[in-house]
Amino acid sequence: MVEISTSILSMKEGEEAEVILGLEASKTDYFHIDVMDGKFVEKNTYDKMLKYSSYIKRISNLPMDVHLMVEDVEKAIDEFASVEPNIITFHYEACKDKKEVMQMINLIKEHHCRVGISIKPNTNIEEIYEFLPYIHLCLIMTVEPGKGGQTLLIDMVNKIKTLKKYITDKKIEVEIEVDGGVNLNTAPKVKEAGANILVAGTAILLAKDYKVIIEELKN
Ligand code: DX5
Ligand code: ZN
């Protein structure tokens, strides 16, 4: 069974309470919080996501899945840990070297959150193999990070398969999350390849009925 993490990136202002409570009632498994700093990616959603995530913490019991698309990973971990997310994921590409990657992993653990590492479409999956025993989740970007509503890069399906095979062979317990362009057409492909958490933004927020689309994406 896969889990669904709904990205609230494209949530309209003024509709926050309705959308968040509606998603909770429709059984999303996580809220996916897309944190962008205007440097690692062009857009800046930093303050808005701090505000939204503390709002979610107040009105909902569901876990948050924070996706940091930022250069200053350490600062963002410290700030977003305050909303007590279940998962904090940072980008491998945002770290200057492998030592920093390990430091960020440990920092997230000190905040009692689960740890995820994300890689962009052009980064080879093999680059993060050495960190897998220390983390809970690998977030494979299936679009270039930066905005919602893009088309899933179909080559990424092979990347998911490669990782799935590697962790199965090595008996490493790591969740595989995919993010970008997940919809009813692409979900079966990434699930079959081995993903077990699917992030979806546009597909869910633009659907008529959150409950129906979430169920359809899961099954
Ligand atoms: C992209 C974000 C994604 C994205 C998901 O940089 O990390 O979470 O917004 O949105 P959709 O489902 O619209 O691709
Ligand atoms: Zn994301």
Question: Explain this structure to me?
Answer:
The protein has 219 residues and is an alpha/beta fold. It has one domain (3-218): Aldolase class I (TIM Barrel). The chain contains eight helices and eight strands. It has helices at 16-25, 46-59, 73-80, 98-110, 156-170, 187-193, 202-205, 210-218, and strands spanning 3-7, 30-36, 64-69, 87-91, 114-119, 137-141, 175-179, 197-200. Strands 1-2-3-4-5-6-7-8 form an eight-stranded parallel β-barrel, surrounded by six helices. The structure holds D-xylitol-5-phosphate and zinc ion. D-xylitol-5-phosphate (DX5) is lined by residues 7, 9, 32, 34, 67, 143, 145-150, 179-182, 199-203.
**How large is the count of helical segments?**
8
Structural class: alpha/beta
Distance between the termini: 8 Å
Q: What molecules are bound to this protein?
A: D-xylitol-5-phosphate, zinc ion
Instruction: Tell me what portion of residues adopts beta-strand conformation.
Output: 15-25%
CATH topology: TIM Barrel
Shape: globular
In the CATH scheme, the class would be: Alpha Beta
CATH superfamily: Aldolase class I
What average pLDDT do the residues reach?
98
